[in-house]
Amino acid sequence: MSIRWEPTERATRPPSTVYHAFASSPQFRKALTAQSRGAVALLVVPEPKRTHLSNAQRVLRIGGSATRSLPPPSEALQQDTLNIPVLLVSDSAARELMKTADTTPSRAQEIIDRDLKPQSRPLLDTDLSIHLRSQYVKEGITYNVGGLLEGSSPALRGETIIISSHHDHDGMTTDGVWHGADDNGSGTVGVVALARAFQTNVAKPKRSILFVSFAAEERGLLGAYFLAAHPVRDLATTRAMLNFDMIGRDEAPTPQTDGLIDIPKVTSNRLNLIGANYSPDYKRVVVAQNASVGLVLDDRFDHESALNIFFRSDQFPFVLKNVPALWWFTGFHPDYHHVTDTADKINYTKMAKILRLAYLTAWHFGDTATPPRFVINP
Questions:
Q1: At what angle do helices 91-99 and 105-115 cross, to 10 degrees?
Q2: Quick one: pLDDT at residue 367?
């Protein structure tokens, strides 16, 4: 059994610096270590002294799909080397189990944070049985959609800028049709609009641009993980990625974020950029290009741990491949993952400004002699 927490984590680094979340994150390493030592399963305890919701509690606040079964494993998990089950346990179950070791999860965390040493101990005289309910998952086929605009420079057209979104949503539920105008009709329209703009411009950037609309984002970033694992362009020479996921609304209080993150009073001209810790160069370019656009740029989501935002959109699998990649995001709102996410609520003026900024940014990345660098350990 392990705690979903690292000593001094919050004090020493922003949440988005949990690098390579599947390949080398602390939780994944714990599971691999347990497996190598002969463990048949790993029980993961939520951070005992957390001031935010656990992942399970957060999901329950989203609504809609939260009552349905979990999505199938992502492409990343299908390719990993972990062969034992990893199960999340409740706070109450963790307390009961640790009674036999004469401690509590909270006490163990306090000592680990203070001494920076493991607090491993056996759970004496403990018999544990786990009953799992399995289900059959229906397999299906879905498609990423992509198009390539070849760069104008023979020397640089082999390098790539990616502009992406996801086009899937959760379809119909008992509540009706989830229209998904913002999530993620807005991002999909954004990719198509930029593809048209770059294509109709007589001048072309020196590097090639790959426009991609991913499938199965809502099922666990499956389309993005697949392309990252089976790229059509060399990721070693992919210089930047602009990922649009929900770029059409004004951020507003919602049950998912209430009490977890501060929302500015005015959001009608605000754009959140997520992931800049891994490429300050990228962010500097966006800030410079924004001088002629006039949006308010916000990096709040790079400094929170309650919502796990950084891991939740299609740029993330490419961050795992060391590609400078930011998620462009206007924020949550009460219609997120509900039937009320409709086109009449889109802020089209703001969305147009975001796409102008994205066009200028992508053009800069496509032409510059010094593309943004990726920082592995920010």
A1: 80
A2: 98
Strand locations in the chain, DSSP E? 2-3, 42-45, 86-88, 145-149, 160-166, 172-173, 176-177, 208-214, 238-244, 270-274, 296-298, 325-329
Q: Which fold has domain 145-367?
A: Aminopeptidase (3.40.630)
CA–CA gap between residue 85 and residue 195 (Å, rounded): 43
Question: Could you tell me the two tokens for 32?
Answer: 């691999």
Task: Give the residues of the chain that fall short of pLDDT 50.
Answer: 11-24, 62-78
**Each residue's pLDDT tens digit, 324-358:** 999 999 999 999 988 999 999 999 999 999 999 99
Over the stretch 216-245, which tens digit does the pLDDT of each residue have? Answer: 898 888 899 999 999 999 999 999 999 999
CA 147, CA 88: separation in Å to the nearest integer?
40
Core vs surface per residue 143-169: b (16+ CB within 10 A) or e = ebebeebebebeebbebbbbbbbbbbb
Where in the chain are the domains?
2-115, 145-367
pTM of the model: 0.78
Beta strands at 238-244 and 325-329: parallel, antiparallel or unpaired? parallel
Q: Which two tokens stand for residue 320?
A: 């795992």
User: What distance in Å separates the CA atoms of residue 356 and residue 351, rounded to the nearest whole number?
Assistant: 9
Task: Give the integer Cα–Cα distance in Å for 143 and 146.
Answer: 10
